[in-house]
Amino acid sequence: MASTTIAAKPRRPSSLKRFFRSFLLLRESKVGMIGAGLVLFWVLIALLAPILAPYSPTANFIREKAPFSTFYVTPDTLVDGKAAADVCTPVTEGEQAGNFDCGTFWLGTDLRGRDTLSRIMYGAQQVLLFAPIATLCAYLVGIPMGLLAGYRRGRIDDFLSFVSNVILSFPVLVLYILIITTFGASGINIIFAVVFASSPGVFRIVRGLALDLRTREYVYAAETRGESLWYILIVEILPNARGPLIVDAMLRLGYVSITIGTLGFLGLGLPPPTPDWGQMIAQGREVIQTAPYIALFPCLAISSLVLGFNLLADGLREVSLRD
Amino acid sequence: MARFQEGWTGPVLECRNLCISYVTRAADIPAVVDFNLTLNKGETVGLVGESGCGKSTVAMAIMQYMGHNGRISGGQVLYKGVDLATLTPEQLRSLRGNEIAMVYQEPMASLNPAMRCGEQLIEVPMFHEGVGAAEARERAVQMLADVKLPDPERVMNSYPHQISGGQQQRVVIAMALLSKPSLLLLDEPTTALDVTVEAGIVELIAELAGRFDTSMIYISHNLGLILDTCDRICVMYSGSVVEEGTVAEVFDHMRHPYTQGLFGCIPLPTADKDARPLVAIRGQLPLPHERPPGCSYGPRCDHFQQGRCDVPPLPMLPVTGETGHEVRCVRWDEIAAPDYSGKGTSEERTFGPPVLSIDRMKKYYELKDSSLKAMIKGKTVRHVKANESITFEARVAETVAIVGESGCGKSTFAKVLMGLETATEGKVEFRGKDIGGLPVQKRKNEDVRAMQMIFQNPFDTLNPSHTVGGQLGRVIRKFGGIAGGENVRKRVLDLLDIVKLPADFYYRRPRQLSGGQKQRVGIARAFAGNPSLVVADEPVSALDVSVAAAVTGLLMEIQREYRTTLLFISHDLSLVRYLADRVVVMYLGHIVEQGTTDEVFSPPYHPYTEALLSAVPIADTSIEKKRIILEGNLPSVINPPIGCPFHTRCHRKIGKICEDVRPPQIEAGDGHIIACHISLADLQAVEPVIVQKPRVDAAE
Amino acid sequence: MLLFIVRRIGSMLLVMVTVSLLVFVALEATPGQVATKVLGPYSSQEQRDIWMEKNGYNAPLHERYVGWLGNFFTGDFGESIRFKTPVSKVLWPRLANTGILAAFTMILVVPISLGFGVLAGMREGSRLDRSISLLSIGTTSVPEMASAPIIAAIFVSWLGLLPGTSGFNGGFSIAELVMPVMVLVLYDFGYVTRMTRASMAEVMQTHYIRTAVLKGLPYKRVILKHALRNALIAPFTVIMLQVNWLLSGVIVTEFFFAYKGFGALLLEAALNGDIFVIEACAMIAVFVSVMTQTLSDIGYTYLNPRIRFS
After folding, report:
1. CB < 8 Å to A12, chain B
2. How does pLDDT run across C172-222, given as a tens digit for each residue?
3. pLDDT at residue B2 in the model
4. How far apart are CA A312 and CA A29, in angstroms?
5. Is B102 touching C (CB cutoff 8 A)?
6. What are phi and psi of B341, to 5 degrees?
7. pLDDT for position A65
8. Would you tell me which residues 152-191 of chain B have a C-beta closer than 8 angstroms to some C-beta of chain C?
9. B61 inside 8 A of chain C by CB
10. Beta carbon pairs, A and C, within 8 Å
11. Which of these, A192, B412, C61, C104, could form a disulfide with B386 (CB 3.0-4.6 Å)?
12. What gap in Å lies between CA B146 and CA A230, rounded to an integer?
């Protein structure tokens, strides 16, 4: 049975094409496409904020003209009660403070006379920077531990599962409050808190998948070849867990966005004047009866972003179940 | 309540030109085309075919239950003369489970896990006949006794998971029979069961058919079972019936090339590889939307003739001289009956020195028992005795089969060999080194290379995330002593060629491969490092017969070529007879008998071997079998019987000695060992289980 | 079964002890900081030393921990820095308020989401299913901090139907409860509905449902008797675990509506460094959540005959 001929050299299909094709699958799900559109919209806004935003997010204005009368906030309502002239900042040099026509504020201004539209745009940058980084870190911690626990079982699993149970037994916000009050509020600490609080969730999912995949015969085959532990975990098991993990990652991104917003809302987030959706809502809360739109627009912003992630997750799940 | 169509004397069921299709996003896929069947009162018809031929679809269409995307696209299903499609949902409901009942493939899945068996049984008379709970219960208990379940009261109060698979299937059968249906559909009712359990169920079905005067449709992929249970048979291929007739006619004078091919693929426990080599059907079953015009078997048929076979329509043609025997082949009278007798050129096989010798190997698992009772007794650690005192040898180029039903310890044994578990006691000598205590990580790369494995399930033997080439390349790099991308690649292509797969499979991913192709890659992977011993764990049991024949042939060919020792783990005695040189029969972790294939397959037998042999369904009308039905369930390995492991179910138990004393190893011949208390002379006096009658040709 | 319960309670205690250790170390590891928090940033070193001496803060960490834990068991949570009263005095009324909020939420969430979930999962892919699924995705996408302003804007500024805050300043009032409950229900509803739907849809696909249908049982019986029994096992756990999420949501909602509950107390304490209140609140929150987890585990095994009888 000598090798007769190795006739046609097989050609390798481009992996780029395969990647592209798997993305095209999402087209089959209307819901998924809407989700992808929403997320893409916010990503573009965040990237182009410096170009798109009409004003600096931290510049304070007194608005004299507004597109809608209800969008008008008089200087009297300013919380810190500073004189109008101190707060208004000209956009171009040479113009006099105080009588400067600040132009149009499409979504109105907040209590300090800062343009809401610009703050939402720059706020998107904050969310879309911190949420993915934090989620990624949570996966980097949760995946190896979950793989190890699910594949090895036994004592290491007992230990890791116990640790994750302890962390998960805290209501999430209580945990955040504890971490932030202990370590203080800063970007790094927020990421740390998110990783600490969500990696047990990632751990659980990965562990469950690994528990299932470890019984597959290809894993058995790798074991009988005497492959190393990490080869089996990373090469044999992990790639086959990617479907559910990608779906979970989308859901988790949405949830982490909510968390970051909530921390800002509760006054535990990034220190002001960084534009932050949660903070904007908290500020609007104080005048919700007289000027509800101040809170409303950031509410819509965060909700639509989270909706985007959730719909994307749902679409991906739908597509992955099909074939 | 009056029965449906009281006094009807015509056929119970008639399918007229039935066409069933599935609606998918792309198109309508015709699953069954032009299906005709007439079933008379009290008659049993077998539907046989390989997976994907549409046989289960027919059953679901008769039930009018095809899911949201299936529909009857043409023809009619007439039950007692009434078209089922014209019934209202309410009328249909009163037929289902009452007039037409069904028994399913997986008993565990078809019973509700959250309801007691009794509750599920009494529903049937309560809803169909409006009887009270007490009477329904009485009837259910009676029916459970009728299907020969010991202790029906206990079964009534059990949840499905608390009884064994065979008992579950009896409950499902009882449920189907409770309303005395006129038509019973059996969809692969024994496929999920062990062979000895299967024998009991088959016997029960055959008996019930006579007693309740029920017409039955028996769906199976196993021709032997059809022979045991049916009056008539329909052979299906790719969505249509290709041959129909009485069992005797079709089995003895099959006309359609596919039927002939199917028979050629089945190993028989009466013949080995030299007497009757398996002939695989070439090619693959076409996908429903890629069927060729005319005969869908055309591309795989040796008798294909252009201009005749590829011209639709292709009607069922009556076979002259045989009533009711029809065949969908335009050339049926031009084709000669195939000759499956062997060429008689059996080459003498020579075996080398032992590669593997196992000496009193034991494998116990520790099981922590944390029940309150155990804690009080202070016995919190119990042992699962998976393997008990295993002793045998395998020589160079020899095929040793390990036979046994599920739970006999054969898979554990494979794990110990491969080093995924370590032996508790005893020796496992491989190429002169004791490796029984060494886990695979501690074995030398050379020893790991020399022993490789082929797995059972084609669907997860290959990693779906990596290409075929990548997976084979990994093994070669690890074991082949070949370095450098181009050299490895060349070797992978060589391997693909050896397992008869085209080179462009290199970049394919497992999901683009059929089951048989995956199994071939699995074989290539096992042989990639030139091993001296290959352990094959049920390598073809999940494949269709025609594919299995090809894969079996390939495996034997490669083994012969490289003089590899093959440990073939299987539950299929026919297949074992076909390819093994020596056989080891296991029961509950013990070896009960071992010897050459001829020795094991003829008396003296161990009583368990005898029962196993009698349970094998054989698709040959000229064979007469002794019927031995094993009673009871497989005992638990946590608490195995003292004495002989088989005594609880043995039909030849001689007395107290069987219960108390481990049986001696009787030497019945050179290397033929039987572990039994019965004297050798008595065992030798047992007649053979399988007897070949001289073929009586009724036609001549 | 009994042993399982005993073991489950044992592991619950182990988790609680670990959590208490974490909380204690996080907040009281350095006595100097505790003294500063209690006496204020302008206290002198001498004053702090005296305070630490008096309150036993010079003892080693593990001794202090044991003492602290002992006090906890007797209901002595220390004295609130801000309110200058024993923590328990502030805590219990607040906890009762939150209990009311949570109870109303659960009473609404459970039947609504189970009903919707079962309806959707019963016929997977139907229009009803798709509408319910979209609705539930929609509501889970609006976090409490966003739904609260939206609801307040609608009912307070726009319709003028409801009072804007829920401080119970004029005594208990149902009207003031409406919005907080609505916010919590809206967020939790989506999740439980989706879980119920998934579980129901999975059960409807099983072979035993096919058996039940082909047995000729009426559809109602197939659903009520055969499907629900299995389909509601998973949502039971989800609902129990939802308590954990509810506790998070409670913090945001109470803060937004100035509801005098336990969540708002925890948040105020955190913002003011009122460490003994933080400790007490955190421990109680964890206790409630661990307790429900344990109950859900025990309930799950009880509901599932496959586990109960094996």
Report:
1. 507
2. 778 888 999 999 999 889 889 999 999 999 999 999 999 999 999 999 999
3. 58
4. 9
5. yes
6. -70, 150
7. 40
8. 159, 161-162, 172, 175
9. no
10. 144
11. B412
12. 56
pLDDT value at position A97?
37
Determine the distance in angstroms separating the CA of A28 from the nearest CA of chain B, rounded to an integer. 10
Q: Is the ipTM of this complex over 0.90?
A: no
CA distance C17 to chain A (A): 10
More confident residue, C144 or C74: C144
The C-alpha atoms of residue C208 and residue B123 are separated, in whole angstroms, by: 14
Distance between CA B164 and CA B161 in Å, rounded? 7
Q: Which residues of C touch B371 (CB under 8 A)?
A: 3
> Distances from the Cα of A258 to the Cαs of A36, A128, B204, C140, C242, in angstroms?
18, 11, 62, 11, 17
For residue B398, the model assigns a pLDDT of 92
Is the pLDDT at B647 greater than 60, yes or no?
Answer: yes
3-state SS string for C5-45: HHHHHHHHHHHHHHHHHHHHHHHHCCHHHHHHHHHCCCCCH
Averaged confidence pLDDT in chain C: 87
Q: Please give the average per-residue pLDDT across A47-59, as a whole number.
A: 80
The model's confidence at residue A135, banded by pLDDT at 50, 70 and 90, is very high
What are the tens digits of pLDDT across the range B498-519? 998 998 899 988 988 888 899 9
The answer to whether C304 faces chain B, any CB pair under 8 Å, is yes
| Average confidence (pLDDT) over A201-209 | 93
How confident is the prediction for chain A on average, in pLDDT? 79
Residue contact A292–C149, C-beta within 8 A? yes
Residue B532, both tokens: 């001296």
Whether C143 has its CB under 8 Å from any CB of chain A: the answer is yes
Residues of chain A contacting B445 with CB distance shorter than 8 Å: 226
| Minimum Cα–Cα distance from B539: chain A residue | A217
* Interface check B112 vs C, CB under 8 A: yes
A132 vs C176: which has the higher pLDDT: A132
The reply to whether residue B111 touches residue C206, judged by beta carbons under 8 angstroms, is no
Which own/partner contact pairs does B694-699 have at CB distance under 8 Å and 24+ positions apart?
A: B694/B622, B695/B252, B695/B622, B697/B252, B698/B248, B699/B253, B699/B321
Q: What is the spatial order of strands in the sheet that B215-220 belongs to?
A: B100-103, B183-187, B215-220, B44-48, B232-237, B240-246, B326-327, B317-318
The sheet carrying B381-395 orders its strands as B381-395, B354-368, B425-430, B433-434
For residues C166 and B124, what is the distance between their CA atoms, to the nearest angstrom? 57
Burial label for B478, CB within 10 Å (0-12, 13-18, 19+), is: middle
Chain C, 254 to 293: residues with Cβ < 8 Å from chain A are: 255-256, 266-267, 270-271, 273, 278, 281-282, 285-286, 289-290, 293
Nearest to B109 among C207, C212, C304 (CB): C207
Question: From the CA of B455, how many Å to the nearest CA of chain A?
Answer: 7
List CB contacts (< 8 A) between C267 and chain A.
Answer: 177, 266
Give, in order, the Cα–Cα distances in Å from B235 to each of A173, B601, C24.
Answer: 65, 30, 75
Higher-pLDDT residue of B232 and B700 is: B232
Contact partners for chain B, using 3 or more CB pairs closer than 8 A, are: A, C
Q: What value does the mean pLDDT of chain B take? A: 87
pTM for the full model?
0.87
Question: Residue C70 is inside which H or E element, if any?
Answer: helix C61-73
Chains linked to C by 3 or more Cβ pairs within 8 Å:
A, B
Nearest-CB residue to C145 (from A162, A261, A310): A261
C107–A contact, CB cutoff 8 A? no
Longest dimension (CA), chain B: 82
Beta bridge partners of B78: B14, B83
Q: What order of strands is seen across the sheet that includes strand B82-83?
A: B28-39, B13-23, B70-79, B82-83
The reply to whether omega before B539 is within 30° of 0 (cis) is no
Tokens of A100: 């400067």
